[in-house]
Write a structure and sequence with these properties.
This protein has 86 residues and is an alpha+beta fold. It has one domain. The protein is built from one helix and four strands. The chain has a four-stranded antiparallel sheet with strand order 1-2-3-4. A hairpin with a 4-residue loop joins strand 3 and strand 4. It is globular, with a radius of gyration of 13 Å. The protein starts with 13 loop residues before the first strand and ends in a 13-residue tail after the last strand. The mean pLDDT is 94. The structure holds zinc ion. The site of zinc ion (ZN) has 9 residues, from loops.
Amino acid sequence: MEKIKCKYCGTELQKVLLPPDSDFNCEYLYVCFNDECGYYVRGWDWMRTHYNVTASYRYKYNPFYGDEGPIPVSSPYTWKDLIAKT
Ligand SMILES: [Zn+2]
């Protein structure tokens, strides 16, 4: 399978298995879990400035719809327990 990489940092994305009740309407997504990723690092400041909340987002790719964009996180650990073990 072709490896999908983060548009911002070049790190290989990891597969996240979503819970059945998620809003994404699909089984899994690919997410950049690099804690040094500029997109994610800048997100904390951006969210505080614009929404006054402690949150950020990571780069994600949805292979079902072919769309990419942010997936919200409230801590460095959000979603990490759902990473698929391959
Ligand atoms: Zn990244």
